């Protein structure tokens, strides 16, 4: 018998672009994040749809015997976790509700929400307080509580009600760690722990895949690991074959560098303050290739009077195909990445 998820239509993906949200998050002088409390449980199921979410539970869990008189039947009245259509139902509900408000803040919410997380910011304390107040009111109309607010501005944090803010010094933002005090971000540390036993191609790829770096801040380090795995593949090493002594030595060096990635914090804000409103901004895209890989890197260059700054805001790298290609052709593929970025 097919499962519920096999019978349901998933629905279109309404998620905003994660990289776009994170890059905009870095542009604000004052960053703010918040979370919708128990978001999925705020969306009700229609009466006719509730019967397909029935499940059985024991009346007395201490009774080890599953007997008919000890079985209780329940059904969900709210959108349950794990159902394939739940992300769409939540996103569509939020989008429909926010579209009712034809205001700049509503548009800002719509463009900077990811599942149940709001990631945005403002340029001044008064603007940030108004953003907090208006977004709270908008979600309150949908019976949703926007809570766990936090900002890099101590003034904002002090002015927010204690019931609405979190006092954590580090929070997770789109797969990154955000240090509130220093206003710096880093990728999350790998959860992969070295277990006793042989090191195989499977384990190297598992460790490499643990690093989540969507905007490519650490592409040079990650690509070295990908090249190593590609070399193993070229030699037809099977998934569970043990690495040779030479390969193991190389992997230990690469693995050490990969683990250090999470220790590097970079400034969250790339905003160059301008008093006279004479700031100019340029996006500079650099593309290049080698025999092993090709990539594109995008920098935000800002000038204001005698001041200027350049920040890496996005990069993407790819391994060169196993079938050898000329450097000019690989450079064209790098340009293609830059155009698509």
From TrEMBL:
Reverse transcriptase domain segment(s): 27-146
One Pfam family hit: RVT_1
Source domain of life: Eukaryota
Parts of the chain that traverse the membrane: none
InterPro entries, A to Z: DNA/RNA_pol_sf, Retrotrans_Pao, Rev_trsase/Diguanyl_cyclase, RT_dom
The protein's name in its UniProt record: Reverse transcriptase domain-containing protein
Species this chain originates from: Mytilus galloprovincialis (Mediterranean mussel)
């Amino acid at each position: 018998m097919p499962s519920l998820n096999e019978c349901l239509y998933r629905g279109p993906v309404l998620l905003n672009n994660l990289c776009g949200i994170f890059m905009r998050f870095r542009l604000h002088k004052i960053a703010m994040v918040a979370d919708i409390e128990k978001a999925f449980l705020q969306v009700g199921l229609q009466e006719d749809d509730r019967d397909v979410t029935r499940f059985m539970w024991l009346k007395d869990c201490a009774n080890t015997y599953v007997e008919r008189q000890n079985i209780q039947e329940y059904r969900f009245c709210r959108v349950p976790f794990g159902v394939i259509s739940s992300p769409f139902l939540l996103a569509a509900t939020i989008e429909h509700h926010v579209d009712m408000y034809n205001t700049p803040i509503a548009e800002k919410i719509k463009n900077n929400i990811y599942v149940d997380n709001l990631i945005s910011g403002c340029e001044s304390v008064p603007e940030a307080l108004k953003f907090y107040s208006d977004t709270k009111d908008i979600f309150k109309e949908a019976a949703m509580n926007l809570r766990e607010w936090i900002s890099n501005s101590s003034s904002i944090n002090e002015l927010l009600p204690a019931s609405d803010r979190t006092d954590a010094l580090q929070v997770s933002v789109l797969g990154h760690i955000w240090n509130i005090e220093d206003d710096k971000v880093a990728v999350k540390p790998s959860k992969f722990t070295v277990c006793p036993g042989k090191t195989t191609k499977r384990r190297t790829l598992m460790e490499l895949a643990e690093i989540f770096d969507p905007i490519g801040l650490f592409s040079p380090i990650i690509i070295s690991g990908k090249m190593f795995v590609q070399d193993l593949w070229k030699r037809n090493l099977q998934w569970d074959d043990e690495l040779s002594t030479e390969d193991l030595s190389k992997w230990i060096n690469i693995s050490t560098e990969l683990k250090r990635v999470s220790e590097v914090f970079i400034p969250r804000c790339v905003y160059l303050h301008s008093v006279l409103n004479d700031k100019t901004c340029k996006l500079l895209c650099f593309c290049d290739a080698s025999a092993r890989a090709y990539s594109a890197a995008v920098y935000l260059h800002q000038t204001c009077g005698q001041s200027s700054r350049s920040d890496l805001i996005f990069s993407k790298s790819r391994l060169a195909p196993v079938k050898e290609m000329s450097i000019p052709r690989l450079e064209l593929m790098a340009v293609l990445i830059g155009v698509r970025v």
